[in-house]
Amino acid sequence: MVKKIVKVLAYLVFVAVMVVITPKILSKILDTPYPLATITSGSMWPVLKTNDLILMKGVEPADVQIGQIIIFRHEGGFTIHRLIRKEKGKFVTKGDANGVEDNPIDPKDVIGRAVYIGKNPFRIPGIGIIAKNFGPKINKIENTKL
C-alpha cells in the first residue's frame, strides 16, 4: 500500500514538474512567452478543432506569410485565424469556418504563428482543455511588451 502511494505521489510530482517546466523550455525554443495555445471555438474547423492544443512560435510581423495561422491580440483577448492578405499596412485574417473576414489588424498585434509540421499546423487533439483551465491567459497579460 505504501509503495502504491509513493508511486502515485512520484507520478503527480513528475506531472506537476512537466506542467511547469515544459512551457518554459518551449518558450525559449519557440522564441515566445506564449508557446502553447488552446483552440476555444470552431472558427478554424476542420484544420483546428475546439480544445486542440497548438504550439505557437514567436514571429516578426514582416515574416508572417499569407496562408499561415497567426495569433493576434485585440481588445477582447486574442484570436487564432489564418492570414488571408496584407493591405494598406494591415493584416486581414479569417477563420477557416467563418463566412466573413475579421476586421483588419495592425501587424504589431501579431504575437506568433502556429508551428507547422509539413503543411499542417502541429496540434494535440483534446489536450488544450488542460492548458485552458490551468495555463496562463494571454488576455490577462495584455500590457506585457512582447
Could you please describe the fold and organization of this structure?
- The protein is of the alpha+beta class and 146 residues long.
- The chain has a single domain (2-136), classed as Umud Fragment, subunit A (Ribbon), CATH 2.10.109.10.
- Helices cover 25% and strands 28% of the residues.
- Strands 1, 2, 3, 4, 5, 6 and 9 form a seven-stranded antiparallel sheet that branches.
- The longest helix has 29 residues, at 2-30.
- The radius of gyration is 17 Å and the shape is elongated.
- The N and C termini lie far apart (49 Å).
- 24% of the residues are buried.
Sum this structure up briefly.
By secondary structure, this protein is of the alpha+beta class.
Q: What assembly state would you assign to the polypeptide chains in this entry?
A: single chain
Structural class comes to alpha+beta
Count of DSSP helices? 2
CATH architecture annotation: Ribbon
**Largest sheet: number of strands, sense, barrel closure:** 7 strands, antiparallel
Please name the defining characteristics of this protein.
alpha+beta; Umud Fragment, subunit A; 7-stranded antiparallel β-sheet; two-stranded antiparallel ribbon; 2 helices; elongated
Secondary-structure blueprint:
Layout: H1 2-30, E1 36-38, E2 53-57, E3 69-74, E4 77-87, E5 90-94, E6 110-114, E7 116-117, E8 120-121, E9 123-124, H2 128-134
Antiparallel strand pairs: 1-2, 2-6, 2-9, 3-4, 3-6, 4-5, 7-8
